[in-house]
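stage 2 :: seqdesign
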């Protein structure tokens, strides 16, 4: 899991009721998304996929809000992207093979 990122969005009353993981793949321009917990079509799924595409790495997201308006989701996506841009390089370094 080296180089991956875990993003949790919620309030103090929420746990991890929603958990998705997205990973880039060589077979599709969009990263593959798997729901580990919660709604398959939930907002965390889209967020994980977008972030995985932008940063080219494994992204876990847990989005724990009962009611999420589209404007709220856009704000969260922009803020998470800004924070990850400060913390991570745009693309992970190439993996070196051990000979």
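stage 2 :: out
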């Amino acid at each position: 899991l080296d180089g991956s990122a875990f993003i949790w969005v919620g309030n103090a009353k929420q746990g991890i009721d929603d958990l998705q993981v997205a990973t880039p793949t060589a077979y599709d321009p969009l990263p593959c998304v798997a729901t580990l917990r919660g709604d398959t079509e939930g907002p965390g799924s889209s967020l994980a996929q977008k972030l995985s595409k932008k940063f080219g790495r494994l992204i876990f997201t847990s989005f724990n809000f009962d009611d999420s308006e589209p404007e709220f989701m856009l704000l969260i996506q922009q803020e998470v992207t800004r924070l990850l841009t400060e913390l991570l390089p745009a693309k992970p370094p190439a993996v070196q093979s051990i000979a």
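stage 3 :: structure notes
- Residues 70-87 form the longest helix (18 residues).
- The first strand starts at residue 5 and ends at 10.
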